[in-house]
Amino acid sequence: MSDFTGSDKQESTPEKVEARVIANELKQESGWLDALPDCPCTVEDARENSHFDEANWFDRQFLEDYHPGAETAFRSADYIEYEASNGETMYIGQQCTFDQQGNLIIEGPGAGTPDSVSPEYSLFEHTERDVDPWEALGSEEYNETWQPNQGEGCDALSELSSERSIPNDLETGLESQRSLESFANTETQMSIETSGETSSFESESQTGSGL
Fold first, then answer.
1. Is the CB of residue 132 less than 8 Å from the CB of residue 105?
2. Stretch 197-210: mean pLDDT
3. What is the rounded distance in angstroms from the CA atom of residue 90 to the CA atom of residue 88?
4. Rounded CA gap, 48 and 40, in Å?
């Protein structure tokens, strides 16, 4: 099996040559990627989406080899017909992978990659047109053509979540500062009161000693 991060692109083998021919064909017909549905942002959303089916126990055995770091994967429940510019019909499908936290993986070796031939249409052609090129090229070069889907608004949701956490952190900091200031004021007041009592005691002592 190929190193999943990919090897030197200058290296040429018959398998790499064949894989790059397929990659070039797909790059010239890049509209097929836009015809695929976006991946849900979370596992929960994917399980509620009728367009996707979760990988069964058998398929999950291969995740570590083909998508290291992915906890589970989903594929299009059925193939999607796409008419290419040359008049031929492609039977494509989407794949989405999720990490242990249930979030969509959008880049790197663990990310799901679209199927130029859905296994729902033909497992043999899927292996020939999608799996074998991955084996030959490794994920880095492979993902340049079979581009992982970014989901719909997944990045925006992450940014929004981060923005929402900032005021909370500031508020916590301000509350801590107020607590410290309150503590300091209390200490100062106690010091003043103690100093006053001491001065009063010393005054009384001095008066008594002068009798």
1. no
2. 43
3. 7
4. 9
